[in-house]
């Protein structure tokens, strides 16, 4: 996502747009509105009247400074992809109807405090992709009391001054990803109306217990692809309205029992792509509304009993790409319902401890692709193909050396080396000293149960009844003929 998304038309925004000041321009006949919009349009820009008011497009115009004058009725100004380097005092004059201002992909290195004075109705400000900005003065946004969306993505900011956002009581959405923060900016604390915070792909190393204080309306927090090694206990205690929390692709190796305490409205939790070695029983105790849980691409080898037992509304659980060999049904009890379970890319040991999972795969169809890594008798099979034997008491018996399933092919042809070795064994018997008739008969009877070739040889012994030298010659002849046939 390149900065903030387009306005989504929420009820709060619609109320904000239905202001009497807006209707002065929007209520004009279309010809008059168009004339008012284009009358003072900057030379390098294009201006047009739209349903949202007068729109001024100055993107990709090669501008090195802000135009001296804009239409007084301007509701939206786009100055993206120019060469602007500096914003001075009242850089845009007085524009009482301006609601949206975009300055993305310029070369801004300094913004004078007071640069946005004269824009009392500005609701959205985009400053993304100004890589030379690096620093913002604490009073930069002092005049923007109605600002709802602020985009500071990819500005290479090292920090955000503590008082910078305190001047924005109406702020709802902050995009500040792709910066150089080492901690969650302290400027976020106390933003009572903030609902969305995008802080991904920076260098944040921890979420402290005080990082998110006062964010009581926060609904979405993105912290993925940082360097987070620690989430302190109670870090989200003030975020009772949080619905989506993304902590994937960080460096988390463990979590405190109270890591997600108080997040009773959370619907999505992404912990994928970390270094977690186990799933703790207490982690998800408060997450009764959770629908999507991502634990993929970790090093999880063990899931504690009852770890998922409170997640009664879970629609999908991702455990793929871990080190799991077994998953106990006790991790889900009691009364657990799950929409989809993703378990591929794990070294599963398909013994009786996974029989419940095999049965669930067959009955629900909500899990598939569980390849067995062990024991050797079933390695390479999918768990759905494994057959578990039963004792007379009805107890499960682990797969034996061979585990035939309904989908297993018939007996494979015997390798030539095995057949030749059997003939070698017969030859040894023929060369042995002649035994009494009774012993020969018994030996022949046993040989009848080996193979067709063995039967032919043993038949020669019984039917022909000649001397040992004749038997030897016949046996060698049969061996030579058989070997030539095999070649």
From TrEMBL:
Residues 346-397 form the LRRCT domain. The chain crosses the membrane at residues 456-484. Coiled coil: none annotated. The keyword Amino-acid biosynthesis does not apply. It comes from the Eukaryota. One of its GO terms (biological process) is visual perception. GO terms for cellular component: plasma membrane. Keywords: Extracellular matrix, Glycoprotein, Leucine-rich repeat, Membrane, Proteoglycan, Repeat, Secreted, Sensory transduction, Signal, Transmembrane, Transmembrane helix, Vision. Residues 1-22 are annotated as: Disordered. Its main location: secreted. It is found in: Secreted, Extracellular space, Extracellular matrix. InterPro entries: Cys-rich_flank_reg_C (IPR000483), Leu-rich_rpt (IPR001611), Leu-rich_rpt_typical-subtyp (IPR003591), LRR_dom_sf (IPR032675), LRR_TM_domain-containing (IPR050541). Belongs to the small leucine-rich proteoglycan (SLRP) family. SLRP class IV subfamily. This is Nyctalopin. It comes from Puma concolor (Mountain lion). The gene is NYX.
């Amino acid at each position: 996502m390149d900065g903030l998304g387009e306005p989504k038309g929420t009820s709060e925004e619609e109320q904000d747009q239905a202001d009497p000041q807006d209707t002065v321009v929007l209520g004009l006949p279309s010809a008059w509105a168009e004339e008012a919009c284009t009358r003072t349009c900057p030379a390098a820009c294009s201006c047009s009247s739209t349903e949202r008011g007068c729109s001024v497009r100055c993107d990709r115009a090669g501008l090195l400074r802000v135009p001296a004058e804009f239409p007084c009725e301007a509701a939206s100004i786009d100055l993206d992809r120019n060469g602007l380097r500096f914003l001075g005092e009242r850089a845009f004059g007085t524009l009482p109807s301006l609601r949206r201002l975009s300055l993305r992909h310029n070369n801004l290195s300094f913004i004078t405090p007071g640069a946005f004075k004269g824009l009392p109705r500005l609701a959205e400000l985009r400053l993304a992709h100004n890589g030379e900005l690096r620093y913002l003065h604490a009073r930069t946004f002092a005049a923007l009391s109605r600002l709802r969306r602020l985009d500071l993505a990819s500005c290479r900011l090292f920090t955000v001054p503590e008082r910078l956002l305190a001047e924005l009581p109406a702020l709802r959405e902050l995009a500040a990803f792709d910066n150089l923060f080492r901690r969650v900016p302290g400027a976020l604390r106390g933003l009572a109306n903030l609902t969305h915070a995008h802080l991904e792909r920076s260098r944040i190393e921890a979420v402290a217990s005080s990082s998110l204080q006062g964010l009581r309306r926060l609904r979405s927090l993105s912290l993925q692809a940082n360097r987070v090694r620690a989430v302190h206990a109670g870090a989200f205690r003030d975020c009772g309205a949080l619905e989506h929390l993304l902590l994937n692709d960080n460096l988390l190796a463990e979590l405190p029992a109270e890591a997600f305490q108080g997040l009773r409205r959370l619907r999505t939790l992404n912990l994928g792509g970390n270094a977690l070695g186990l799933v703790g029983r207490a982690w998800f105790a408060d997450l009764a509304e959770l629908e999507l849980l991502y634990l993929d691409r970790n090093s999880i080898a063990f899931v504690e009993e009852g770890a998922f037992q409170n997640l009664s509304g879970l629609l999908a659980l991702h455990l793929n790409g871990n080190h799991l060999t077994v998953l106990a049904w006790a991790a889900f009890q009691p009364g657990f319902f799950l929409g989809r379970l993703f378990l591929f890319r794990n070294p599963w040991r398909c013994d009786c401890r996974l029989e419940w999972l095999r049965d669930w795969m067959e009955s629900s169809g909500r899990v598939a692709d569980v390849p067995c890594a062990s024991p050797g008798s079933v390695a390479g099979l999918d768990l759905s193909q494994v057959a578990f034997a039963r004792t007379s008491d009805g107890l499960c018996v682990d797969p034996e050396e061979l585990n035939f399933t309904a989908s297993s092919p018939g007996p494979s042809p015997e390798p030539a080396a095995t057949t030749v070795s059997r003939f070698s064994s017969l030859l040894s018997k023929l060369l042995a000293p002649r035994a009494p008739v009774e012993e020969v008969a018994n030996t022949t009877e046993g040989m009848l149960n080996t193979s067709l070739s063995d039967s032919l040889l043993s038949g020669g012994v019984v039917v022909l009844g000649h001397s040992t030298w004749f038997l030897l010659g016949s046996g060698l002849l049969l061996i030579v003929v058989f070997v030539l046939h095999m070649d």
